[in-house]
Amino acid sequence: MVVVLFVCTGNAARSQMAEGWLKNLKSEFIVLSAGTKPDGLSPMAVKVMKEVGLDISNQSSKHLDKVEWMAVDYAITLCDSANKSCVTMAWPESCQQRHWPINDPVSDDEYRNARDEIKQRIEIFLEEF
Fold first, then answer.
1. Is 55 exposed, middle or buried, given 0-12, 13-18 or 19+ CB atoms closer than 10 A?
2. What does the radius of gyration of the chain's CA atoms come to, in whole angstroms?
């Protein structure tokens, strides 16, 4: 089974939306998300995902140390800060690292743009399988 970990700084919005999308689009994957400085699940991320029929309200913001990151096949960072932190980690040799620089959403429209961009990137990622 393929294990995918999405990482952003706060694990509040981008990585949470990515987790929700991939779980919905490829349910046979094990999908995790974490942050380098977790800040709680963003209510706006929950709201914009609900607009497209996905409920991520049961997901939780967690620190990277709280997930089994040594077992992941793909580690995908969604912000430059997390990417800088993750570059120095001792990832397993089999882990493929990717960086998808998604702008940090602030307004409603930016959350929707981030949500849609993440979905597009995940769809491209899934074409590999």
1. exposed
2. 13
Print the domain residue range for 114: 3-126
CATH number assigned to the domain comprising residue 95: 3.40.50.2300
Written as six digits, the tokens of 2 are: 């393929």
Active-site residues: which are they? 8, 79, 86
Across the strands, what pairs with 7? Answer: 34, 77
Retrieve residue 75's tokens.
């580690």
User: How many structural domains is the chain composed of?
Assistant: 1
Quote the tokens at residue 49.
């995902």
Question: Cα dihedral angle (27, 114, 49, 10), rounded to 10 degrees?
Answer: 80
How much is the pLDDT for 128?
Answer: 87
- Please check whether residue 106 is in contact with residue 42, taking contact to mean a CB–CB distance below 8 angstroms: no
d(C-alpha 57, C-alpha 45), whole Å: 9
The 10s digit of each residue's pLDDT in 44-88 is 999 999 999 999 999 999 999 999 888 999 999 999 888 888 877
Instruction: State the pLDDT at residue 48.
Output: 98
pTM of the model: 0.94
Q: Which of 47, 65, 63, 58 is nearest to 19 (CA)?
A: 58
